[in-house]
Design a protein that fits this description.
4 domains; five-stranded mixed sheet; alpha+beta; Immunoglobulin-like; flat; 26 strands; 10 helices; six-stranded mixed sheet
């Protein structure tokens, strides 16, 4: 096709080319979105397999205690787990190499290998459209062939945890099953399985492939775990009953007068409905009807307060021996009356500027039905069921109000400013001091004496005066609590006979809107 001479026609042709390129980009983006969706689904499936596989080994080990011959199956669990872990780590290692080589090839996988796209700044692989890395590493460098051999090796390792007689049947169901012949029928000439699977494939398109291999490994682990479980009777019809105890599970162990006490009574060693044949349950001589799971309900109305006791008895037929065995146990619960208690965890006063801990309890009422509010401050509930009060101004009438079904209560507290701290040099507030001790002091400390809160005040500044014998006074201002500059210099001059005065000491404590004067100190150097 000749290039048009007319500028207008040339512009139209260029616009067609740009439009075609944009359409190609849109199709490409949709395809990569599909790859990401498939990869996300496989990763979710892998997480579910991990959770499932983690729960089974303990059940196998516990069941293996019932019979000596079961121990051989429990002993295979650690090797099985290590094989699966090693296989997944191998896949992750290859992925790290490909991501690095296709993004920013610096020998490691970090933020440089990703880009942020879209209004939500979605984190996306920088080289997801790059197919040079996958071809060079997986095909040319032989990593794909190595992966194929590794997967075949893993299949052999998984089957090694199966009894030799059972291996043919398990091998048919094992998810690791790679078709090594399909590449030969490809319409495009392919060198081998690795070229067929990874040759000229963009990195983003290979991500689901690697997730699928990891899924095969984890699913194979699950298959072997299921085999080992069947060998020791986990989930099967085998029942081992060697310890029994009667259990009472009350809805509440502390109830209010007039309420009804309810509890579930059952045998803790019960192993399903089949093992409950001939089961009978009674409490205080009263026969109770058990449901299909062997659970019976007992209830009685509380007429008086105090400790109440009841005796539960269960008789069961052993599913193995056919013998009938009886078990008895005594339980108790307490009946009380409704009441509310409000107490400050530290003292009967709140302080401005800090979090004041408070405990609120309403006997016999669920915590979610207790409503707490405050006048003269604010109160919030903590995760452990306690409360925190925040106060901003002094008052004698800060009131906490509590309401619960059938009761209300309130309590008045005082809100005060922090007490004025005592200025000190280390532990001394004045008196005599040696030159060495004075020179070692770092600054003036605001000490809150006999105060329960773990809170601190801050020294804003002070004036220090050195008066040496037969010399003029040396006044030095200092900003903050630590000695600085000129103040440090005249401290180093300290010698016996000198006097040091710390005056106009300003301090600020939590809740203070401005500085407060906390007095002065006087020291004689001896």
């Amino acid at each position: 096709m000749s290039i048009p001479k007319e500028p207008r026609q040339l512009m139209i042709n260029i616009m067609y080319l740009v439009l075609t390129a944009l359409l190609a980009l849109n199709v490409s983006a949709e395809i990569f979105n599909a790859f990401e969706m498939v990869d996300g689904g496989l990763k979710s499936a892998n997480s579910a397999l991990d959770a499932s596989n983690a729960a089974i080994p303990e059940a196998i080990k516990e069941q293996a205690k019932a019979k000596a011959s079961f121990k051989t199956y429990a002993d295979r669990l650690d090797g099985l787990k290590n094989t699966s872990k090693e296989g997944s780590a191998y896949i992750d290692e290859i992925l790290d190499i490909l991501i690095d080589e296709s993004g920013t090839p610096d020998g490691k996988v970090d933020d440089l290998d990703y880009v942020l796209v879209g209004e939500q700044n979605k984190r996306e692989l920088k080289g997801k459209k790059n197919y040079d890395g996958t071809t060079r590493i997986m095909v040319d460098a032989g990593k794909g062939t190595e992966l194929l051999e590794k997967m075949k090796e893993l299949k052999v390792q998984f089957l090694s945890f199966v009894d030799e007689a059972d291996r043919p049947g398990i091998a048919k169901n094992l998810p690791i099953n790679i078709d090594e012949e399909a590449w030969k029928d490809s319409p495009n000439a392919k060198l081998n399985w690795a070229d067929f699977t990874f040759g000229h494939m963009p990195l983003g398109a290979t991500m689901p492939i690697f997730s699928k291999f990891k899924n095969d490994i984890k699913a194979s682990e699950a298959e072997i775990l299921g085999y080992l479980s069947s060998k020791v009777g986990v989930g099967g019809a085998t029942v081992v009953l060697d310890k029994y105890t009667v259990v009472s599970a009350p809805k509440k162990s502390y109830i209010i007068k007039g309420e009804k006490f309810e509890t579930d009574v059952f045998l803790s060693a019960s192993a399903g409905k089949d093992s409950q044949t001939g089961l009978s349950i009674s409490v205080n001589g009263q026969s109770l009807r058990a449901d299909g799971d062997g659970v019976a309900k007992f209830s009685q109305t509380a007429a008086t307060t105090g400790i109440k006791k009841y005796n539960a008895s269960i008789t069961i037929t052993d599913p193995v021996t056919g013998d009938r065995k009886s078990f008895k146990k005594e339980f108790e619960y307490e009946v009380g009356e409704r009441s509310v208690a409000i107490s400050a965890s530290k003292m009967n006063v709140f302080y401005m500027g800090v979090k004041n801990p408070v405990e609120v309890s309403a006997a016999g009422v669920a915590s979610d039905k207790v409503k707490v509010s405050m006048d003269g401050g604010s109160i919030s509930k903590n995760g452990d069921g306690t409360y925190t009060v925040t106060a901003t101004k002094p008052t004698k009438n800060a009131k906490i109000n509590v309401s619960a079904p059938g009761m209300t209560a309130s309590k008045v507290f005082r809100v005060k400013r922090f007490p004025t701290p005592v200025p000190k040099l280390n532990t001394k507030a004045g008196g005599t001091i040696s030159p060495g001790e004075l020179k070692s002091v770092q600054g003036v400390l605001p000490v809150l004496e006999n105060f329960d809160f773990e809170a601190k005040c801050e020294i804003l500044g002070f004036r220090m005066v050195r008066v040496a014998p037969r010399s003029d006074a040396e006044p030095i201002p200092n900003q903050g609590g630590r000695f600085k500059g000129a103040a440090t210099a005249i401290l180093k001059k300290a010698k016996p006979g000198d006097r040091y005065f710390f005056e106009d000491i300003k301090c600020k404590c939590p809740g203070d809107k401005g500085p407060r004067d906390i007095g002065s100190m006087s020291f004689m150097v001896r």
